[in-house]
Amino acid sequence: MNIISYEDKYEAQWDAFVNDTAVNGALMHTRNFLAYHPKGKFEDCSCLIFDGDELAGIVPACVKTEAGKKAFFSHAGASYGGIVVNHEYYNGKKVIEMVDTLENFVKEAHFGQIILKITPDLFCREKSDLLQYVLRYRGYSDYCELAAYIDYADYKQDLIANISSHRLRKLKTALKNNLEFRILTEDEDVRNIHAVITKNYLKFETKPIHSAEEMLDFKNKRLPDKVVFVAAYSGGTMAAGGMLFLFGKVAHAQYLSQDYDFDDVFPNVYLYHKTIEWARDHGFEKLSFGINTTYRGAVLNTGLLDFKESFGSKHAVNRTYYKEL
Question: Which ranges carry the BioF2-like acetyltransferase domain (predicted)?
Fold first, then answer.
């Protein structure tokens, strides 16, 4: 096998591979998605792994400094990265060869560390057990983060029956106050969602990953059929809002935040409930709520986890593999 550094001329082939050929390719691996980042934000070092003329795998990656070392990081601009593997190459012999070929390529480029954020099984066509085993087999260490998701195959049809008694009391308060759930299509509404999220994040001394302009880029240009904006209104005013990425049969919720000025009517409880209902009614098999950890999984946000669990969420582990070179 041989590796070629990514160039723009490979964009169509790359995205077709992710969408149609890979066992673990998903939306955030595509160049279309990664290109939402402004030029210059990351130093790209993505690569393609070929076996003769056959594209065997791709690795979206960027240069990053970790603990004073130049790191090959896959990928700092997305929730997960590579290696993304051709389904015809997903066997022990070929995956070992791909991992070894990538490592040699990275060493020759004078990187001191390689970091691979593996695609969670939730978004894969096949489980990633083989790839994860091979990485451990080749001496990689890992850290894990705890995620939560709804699996509609094991979810009671009566949505209320899945909610804990404590959370249900708050939902009943929200329903009594006639909150309204909306799917938003206007640019100004998306800007309002971003304002609600930003105000919410100030409480935790942080800010959203995406700007309002980037959200509008997703909506109007980059991902018009892959992103949905949801909100809860109280008396005609937005009280909570968020964004969904659509991955085939899995929807991934991001931000789902409330304006704390409306805390007495529990708009976030209502928004979670209605988002769960919307995803089920639109044929999704699973709804991802993302991770509940920070600092590479070392800190668990127990309050956030409890909140997601109270809606009947299951648990999943997202793993990142790394190796000193």
Answer: 168-292
